[in-house]
Amino acid sequence: MKKALFTFTLAVLATFSSQAQKMENSLLWEISGNDLEAPSYVYGTIHMTCDASLSDVVKTALENTSLLVLELDMDDPNMNTTMMSNMAMKENTNIKDLLTDEEYASLNEFVQAQFGAPLSAFETFKPFFLSAMLYTKFLDCPIQSFEGELVKVAHEQEEEVLGLETVEEQLKIFDDIPYEDQIKDLLVSISDNLVSDKEKFQTMLELYNNQDLEGIKNIMNTDETLMMTKHIDLMLVNRNKNWISKIESFSKEQPTFFGVGAAHLIGKNGVVQLLKDQGYTLTPIK
User: Fold this and answer.
1) How are strands ordered across the β-sheet holding 256-261?
2) In the predicted model, what is the mean pLDDT of the chain?
3) Residues whose CB falls within 8 Å of the CB of residue 206, separated by 6 or more in sequence, listed in order
4) How far apart are CA 7 and CA 138, in angstroms?
5) What residues have CB less than 8 Å from 157, skipping those under 6 apart?
6) Is there a domain that residue 215 lies in?
7) Closest CA to 62 of 259, 210, 248
8) 10 Å Cβ neighbour count for 222?
């Protein structure tokens, strides 16, 4: 479950974008200029799929770089332990504190049916984690991740794997976002037995496979969840801005391959445009 929670944490974090700037449809972008000695690359991933095979252009970019940097350092042996220790809500908050008796009974029945365990087994979890666990129900196949494939290649090339942020930094977002808003989104998801969420994810996956960043942006712009409509800065924008100086630093040291959720590439506050604003040349590699 710990590995699944990590994967699905990334999946949720990577599905938010509300910017309205048109960009070319490419998942792989070369970073050059600003006196870089060699190009680096930024690649938009989707963290949960049935087939995470890497394309030839991605493999070539990996061959031309000497460091892999993902959102999190997936080589950190303490990552899962750190994640588990940061799952509980602060100030001894309990799921029951956030729900009416009727809502609790409904959610308990749903959780029991999905996971074979009562809601009480997860009652101290941040509500986001319950939502993330439900992502396992969105695909009828063994789940793969592009991050896992990228790490395999890095290991084969005997390269280091690092992260743009720590687990603690990433999970703090779900203390900053009110637990009440998280639980409201969860209740909406289960209200139709996940039908709408499954349909939306399948659409998102198809758009991703077609490298249709404009389509992904449009899906995000019509998202009505509270996480999207109220907390986009915490979920996406602030993180993108915090990453830019780190991307610059890594790229100046050595040619680096960056893998981040595809939605992080999009819009005026996306990684591609923010790097352009710093004077770098971003070239789509199709």
Assistant:
1) 160-163, 67-70, 256-261, 40-45, 28-32, 281-285
2) 91
3) none
4) 13
5) 62, 63, 66
6) yes
7) 259
8) 9
Assign residue 99 a region (left: φ > 0; alpha: ψ between -120 and 50; beta: otherwise): beta
160: left (phi over 0), alpha (psi -120 to 50) or beta: beta
**What's the pLDDT band for 223 if we cut at 50, 70, 90?**
confident
Instruction: Say if residue 18's pLDDT is above 50.
Output: no
Find the mean pLDDT for residues 86-103: 96
Task: Please check whether residue 177 lies inside any domain of the structure.
Answer: no
Spatial separation of the C-alpha atoms in residues 239 and 269, rounded to whole Å: 10
- The answer as to whether 94 is a domain residue is no
Contact at 8 Å (CB) between 41 and 65? yes
Residue that the structure tokens 């637990």 belong to: 179
The answer to whether 50 and 264 are in contact (CB under 8 A) is no
Is residue 197, in this structure, part of any structural domain at all?
yes
What's the rounded Cα separation, in Å, for the pair 220 and 201?
Answer: 11
Chain centroid to CA 94: 26
> Given the structure tokens 């190009």, which residue do they identify?
39
Question: Looking at the predicted structure, is the pLDDT value of residue 21 above 70?
Answer: no
Asked if 127 and 95 touch (Cβ cutoff 8 Å), the reply is: yes
**CA 93 to CA 125: how far, in whole Å?**
9
The total of structural domains in the chain comes to: 1
pTM: predicted TM-score of the whole model, two decimal places: 0.90
Compute and round to an integer the Cα radius of gyration of the chain: 19
Residue 148, domain extent: 2-77+142-166+192-285
